[in-house]
Amino acid sequence: MLIHFVRTHRSADDFPVTEHLAYTIAQVAADPVAVPAETEAMVINRIIDNAAVSAASAVRRPVATARQQALAHRARPGATVFGVDGGYSAEWAAWANGVAVRELDFHDTFLAAEYSHPGDNIPPLVAVAQQLGVRGSDLIRGLATAYEIQVDLVKGICLHEHKIDHVAHLGPSVAAGLGTMLRLDVDTIYQAIGQALHLTTATRQSRKGAISSWKAFAPALAGKVAIEAVDRAMRGEGSPAPIWEGEDGVIAWLLSGPEHTYQVPLPAPGEPKRAILDTYTKEHSAEYQSQAPIDLARRLRDQIGDLDQIATIVLHTSHHTHHVIGSGSGDPQKFDPDASRETLDHSLPYIFAVALQDGTWDHELSYAPERAHRPDTVELWHKISTVEDPEWTRRYHSNDPAEKAFGARAEVTLKSGEVITDELAVADAHPLGARPFEREQYIGKFTHLADGVVDPAEQQRFLDAVQHVGDLKGDQLVALNVRVLPEVLDKAPTIPSGIFR
Questions:
Q1: What is its EC number (predicted)?
Q2: What is the rounded (10 degree) CA torsion for 478, 66, 454, 486?
Q3: CA distances from 478 to 48, 81, 97, 194 (A)
Q4: What is the mean pLDDT of residues 331-352?
Q5: Where in the chain is the domain with CATH 1.10.4100.10?
Q6: Fold entry, domain 2-278
Q7: Are strands 2-7 and 74-79 parallel, antiparallel or unpaired?
């Protein structure tokens, strides 16, 4: 990997375009390096993972809304919308499928200086590949690039400390991935990346306080915007430049300012793209920093016994966890039984209480209104708080995979005064966890979440196709769509008409 030093430059400076971060990323995207076998295998795993969580969210209101919007934009041959037949305009198919993937907060993650869900790259690339009849092998190449760029930006540039949403890294990664997949030249990819970044910077209010359904729509919009940016760039249109480094650019006014230098790692020329191997998926439908605490709570049940004995629970954890999903956020909504599902899946005290009581986690039942309103749950929930522990913060930011951790240490004080402590560094499903996810577990997650939603024969057809995606050509990529049972789609809420019909 090469480290690129990225800072603001005045317009009067001699700053060659070849040194712009967007140009350097474009060079990585245009590099025709072969995809390692392990990268290809993980790409397939994540396509399966996305299909799993899309099946689970098929009839949720935001997904139904996005689907109805997409179905108003037919195209031939077009791209597929998850769950239904027919061809639709690629950017709208990406929109609908992106919401389906993101709605339950249940797919892959990468955490470093910034947060990310790199699986958000998959819907836009698949949609464009289907519409243009791209070869499956080129789709894999594109996804390897998209994951690489998003992970590398997440390692090098923190957005949330300036209250910028993490989808600002997604727009450029989708544009870069599309550039690789479509075998575009460096200059075209460069212009697309600049446009995509310029149009996908937004505040983090979508993940603060009372969190709404927009949390699912935000990454889908970034993917849609990136597709449109690539289309314009292919037609010869330019972008603001230098987009990161300009004196009125992203670093100068949205991030750490003209005095700061960021260090962004990117593959050297000829270096394979392996960043997807640094990412990890979720066993539980909840914000990633709650994955290890859920597993810890399940383990603590036997040690505690009667939960009525509990006086207080303090979770010692990282700065990020404490301030984003813990009591350090200052959000009273995180302790409100009437809070939205999106808010509850960003409330570690709620999640820990339910996991401790139930010994399991379910993407629907654990968030049901009657579950959140149970008096004994509310009582336990309000006994739980978080504190930042410098050691957990250090491990969160560690570059050593064996040391990097997203867990917590629980201190449970009983009414008798006895204190029970236990800790867990990584989730059981993490590559270094007790039960790491491999192909078998990804397939198991899909068949579990698709049960009763997708016909078993259709499940098997999809699994057979996706595991040979590299061999698919032309219109064969429609095989990556999964048809949902009509009687299931009939259960989706009725959506009022809008502009698009």
A1: 4.2.1.3, 4.2.1.79
A2: -100
A3: 14, 10, 14, 30
A4: 95
A5: 2-278
A6: 2-methylcitrate dehydratase PrpD (1.10.4100)
A7: unpaired
